[in-house]
Amino acid sequence: MDNEKIKAIMVSKTHWDREHSRPFEQFRWHLVYNVMDKLLNVFETVPEYKSYMFDGQSLGILDYLEIRTEKESQIKKYVQEGKLFIGPFFVGPDEFIPSGESLIRNLLEGHKIANKFGGVMKVGYNPDAFGHISQLPQILRGFSINSAVFSRGVGEDIGKPGTDFIWESPDGSSVLAVYVNYGNAVHLPKDLESAKDRIKHTVESMLPKDVPFVLLINGSDGSVPEPHVPDVIKYANEKLENIEVSHGTLQEYVELVNSRSEKLKRYSGELRLGRYNLILGGVYSSRTYLKQANAKTQTLLEKYAEPLATFAWVVKGDDYPSPFLERAWRLLLQNHFHDTICACSQDKVYHDAMQRYANSQQIAEKLIERSIKVIVRDINTNSVDIPNANALVVLNTLSHERSEIATKKIYIPVEADGRLQSYVIRDSKGNLVPFQIRNQRIIESFQPTFWEKQYPYGKRLREFDVSFIVDSVPSYGYKTYYLCPESGSSPKTDLKVFETEMENNYIKVKINPNGTIDLTDKPSGNTFNGIHFFEDEESACGEYNHYTTANPQIINTLTQNARISKIESGPVCGTFKIDIDMLVPEGLSSDLQSRSDKLVVCPITTYVTLNANCRVLSFKTIIQNNAKDHRLRVRFPTGISTDHVHAEGQFHILERNIKLPNAESWVEKPVPESPHQTFVCISDYSKGMTMINRGLVEYSAEESNNGVILSLTLLRGVGWIGREFFVTATYKIPTPDAQCLGRHEFEYAIYPHSGTWESAKPWLYAHNFNAPLEVVETDRHTGSLPNSFSLFSVEPSEIIVSAVKKAENDSAMVIRMFNISDRQTIAKLTTFQPIKKAFIVNMLEENLEDLAVSGNNVSLPIKRNQIITLKLIF
User: Fold this and answer.
1) Is a pLDDT exceeding 80 seen at residue 449?
2) How far apart are CA 527 and CA 638, in angstroms?
3) Does the structure show a pLDDT above 80 at 626?
4) Maximal C-alpha separation, the chain
5) Is 806:313 a contact under the CB 8 Å cutoff?
6) Are 650 and 676 in contact (CB under 8 A)?
7) Using only C-alpha atoms, what is the Rg of the chain?
């Protein structure tokens, strides 16, 4: 390569931030007038202008055509001619906050849109995401994409911008990875000599290389097409001796590099470091309310709406609501644009984003209601002779059998004499089941939005929750119990509640005067003392990054006197209420160099609940945030000494080092805080703790004199996108709503255990916590379905299902699953009826391989961390 001419491919594009420093509709004005209108004019008037890439996204084209409906034929023409490249993504997503399944749907929707216009750009271009997940190569391969082009996330072990390498997912899938600064050739001067010098300097900055090819990106944030690019390239080729420039595409560059791929280094793992580019690591704690709304919406779609709609369609022949599901998914996915979901934009963006979440949730909730109606009305709830009882159908929408606590809110008219009827819970054999009546109150008459019950107007209603222990509710199925109007007490359980202590067969809890907890894992004898305290410190930068001042002021609740109240004493649920009035500085000083001298009270109320026969201690914390410019975390000293933790990522349990790398010369230094999905696990093989969250993305694992402390960020209030004085992106745009003042509610849990993360199986408890059993009240009636039923089951428990849906283009059922373990296993799928045909398909649901079927069963090997999509025909 020493004397070989460098081939430079210049790709013209814009980087399209759908919303960020301005809200969507204002950015769309720029998209219409300054980008797309001008691009179409350039295509018409500058025939030498070869091609343009729309930033790896598809949705922006629909945004444009909503205004310029008359331009659709032109868009199709240029896509089909290979001049305009759109897709493969729906939007350019953040990769660490959305679920793995959501990232697949992002690509699926992006392909659907691009194909309608004539073709998809088959390059995984996601330039501005703040790092990249370890499973991205496998996901891209699932869409027949063999390359990833990006601009952030590299540490010391890959190389500077301009480096090409082979990137492997943990299952062994690989793509060509192109690390390039995405605006390295933007705003080319119209002066040809100056433009030539700019190209020469940019090319030389990427040398030396393993291959004689460089990528020039002629476009950046909101940049407009530059019609003089062909003239610049022509002049540069006349003047430059060792560089040949062509106006081309990402595909052309990928093909060139792949022709010499044997010369490239290999890398595996996530890309989340800031050696050369900012990764803006504070975004995972910015506007935590947004992340909570995202988790709720994803869960409604992935764990309830789609599986239940599939159940109703496959088993009962109900119409599958594809248009509504697509609408709900697209509303959700709009919010997965990286500057939206990362909460690093101006306030108006989040007024829009929260409305999208609300609308998506409304659709999902209605579809859930509809599917449940279809299913439950055909269950033979009259099969057991229990007079005057109502049936409680417990639905499990996860891929493993579940034995835990189920809860249902009940509304019953108050008797004329004011008497409150007693109730018990029985199973389908008539046996009493442990139960507990909770949160009972009398309310004025109203009309609940239930399809089964109609209440007389004018009567007062009795409202209460009934929690009861269910046993072996089948995967993707249901089991029927009965609410019986009779006197009687609950059977005893293993739960015992005392003045400031409670325990069951697995966990012992002692609440200390300062509100911390001493926890014992009874099977192993391991203890965790002084867990669950709150820590507050200033956050002086903005949404992009969390930085303290030079002399940080850290406040915690360890010296507080908590008010402790016993709320519930079993037999199913034990709950203590812990109240703390935390005094914290009102905000930052006027010069931003310290915290304010004025203190305000931030009341904190935590409900600590231990259920009978349960291995998890759950928390609900309510905070009235009255302070600004601060970060509040809940902390769990583990007493465990280890150098790593295991955190759930997208289709992968990541082993992450606790010690941070040496980063003196880095653009952005690493921090202890990291993103995760539903849990993080720490273990020294004999003692372990898993911290489970519901929609709280940021955790940290930090060394102390007494072992590692796990922390979960509850909120971080800031007033700017990015303040100056810090090594970060500086958008000095005020964001008063990002201070997150007011009431906030957080849910999380602790699972103590022994052994490794694989032997403790924390994913089972974390996924149960995030997708509770759904309970439906109905009357006794006949039907064709039995009182217990499973659509399908999957074994072993290391195989997790991420999607159950109708196929996009035919009447087959699609099941996507992945192996969460680090070893190959045999997956066994058993369905409720015989399977006619089964196929392994890619993520576009195109057939790859026929599978052997044996009646209701399909078995197949799944490699470590492999994602498999199946298509079944009944």
Assistant:
1) no
2) 9
3) yes
4) 99
5) yes
6) no
7) 29
Residue 210 CB contacts under 8 Å (≥ 6 apart), including other chains:
164, 260, 263, 264, 265
Contact 689, 710 (CB under 8 A): yes
- Residue 865 φ/ψ region, left for φ over 0, alpha for ψ in the -120 to 50 degree band, beta for the rest: left
Six-digit token pair at 141?
A: 């391969």
Instruction: For residue 79, give both structure tokens.
Output: 């896509």
Strands 174-179 and 147-150, bridge-based pairing: parallel
Residue 658 has pLDDT above 80, yes or no: yes
Give the bridge partners for 620, in sequence order: 607, 747
Reduced to 3 states (helix: H, G, I; strand: E, B; else coil), residue 495 is coil
- Distance (Å, rounded) from C-alpha 532 to C-alpha 518? 9
| Other Cβ atoms within 10 Å of 229 Cβ, number | 23
Q: How far apart are CA 660 and CA 9, in angstroms?
A: 37
What is the pTM for the complete model shown? 0.97
For β-strands 477-484 and 461-469, DSSP reports them as unpaired
Query: How far apart, in whole angstroms, are the C-alpha atoms of residue 624 and residue 819?
Result: 41
Scanning the structure block, which residue is given the tokens 């080092």?
Answer: 657
Residue 456 has pLDDT above 60, yes or no: no
The encoded tokens of residue 152 equal: 């952030």
The structural domains of the chain, ordered by start, are: 6-279 (3.20.110.10), 390-492+773-777 (2.60.40), 496-640+653-659+667-676+695-744 (2.70.98.30)
- The helix (run of H) or strand (run of E) holding residue 257 is helix 250-258
Whole-angstrom Cα distance, residue 306 to residue 320? 9
CA 776 to CA 410: how far, in whole Å? 10
Task: Give the list of residues 6+ apart from residue 648 with CB closer than 8 angstroms, or none.
Answer: 654, 676, 677, 678, 679, 680, 763, 766
Beta bridge partners of 840: 849, 870
**pLDDT tens, residue by residue, 189-199:** 999 999 999 99
- Residue 271 CB partners (closer than 8 Å, separation 6+): 131, 132, 150, 152, 153, 154, 158
Give me the numbers of helices (H) and strands (E) for the chain, helices first please: 16, 47
Quote the CA–CA distance of 184 and 116 in Å, as a whole number: 32
Give the per-residue pLDDT at 419: 76
Residues sharing a CB contact under 8 Å with residue 197, sequence separation 6 or more, in sequence order: none
The C-alpha atoms of residue 861 and residue 796 are separated, in whole angstroms, by 12
How far is Cα 232 from Cα 202, in angstroms, rounded to an integer?
14
Q: What is the pLDDT of residues 73-93, one digit of tens each?
A: 999 999 999 999 999 999 999
Amino acid at 796: P
Q: Contact 762/647 with Cβ under 8 angstroms?
A: no
Bridge partners of 394, per DSSP, are 479, 775
Contact 773/473 with Cβ under 8 angstroms? yes
Q: CB–CB of 507/497 below 8 Å?
A: no
Parallel, antiparallel or unpaired: strands 124-125 and 147-150 = parallel
Residues in the chain: 874
Residue 329: which residues within 8 A CB-CB, separation 6 or more?
105, 109, 301, 360
What single-letter amino acid sits at 319? D
> What residue type is 277 in one-letter code?
N
Compute the distance between CA of residue 774 and CA of residue 783 in angstroms, rounded to an integer.
20
- H or E element: which one contains 256? helix 250-258
* CA-based torsion, 566, 572, 573, 574: positive or negative: positive
Tell me phi and psi for residue 544, to 5 degrees: -65, -45
- Report which of 634, 650, 643 is spatially closest to residue 691, judged by C-alpha positions: 634
Interacting residues of 512 by C-beta distance below 8 A, sequence separation 6+: 518, 530
Is the distance from CB of 264 to CB of 210 less than 8 angstroms? yes
CA dist 14 and 265 (Å) reads 30
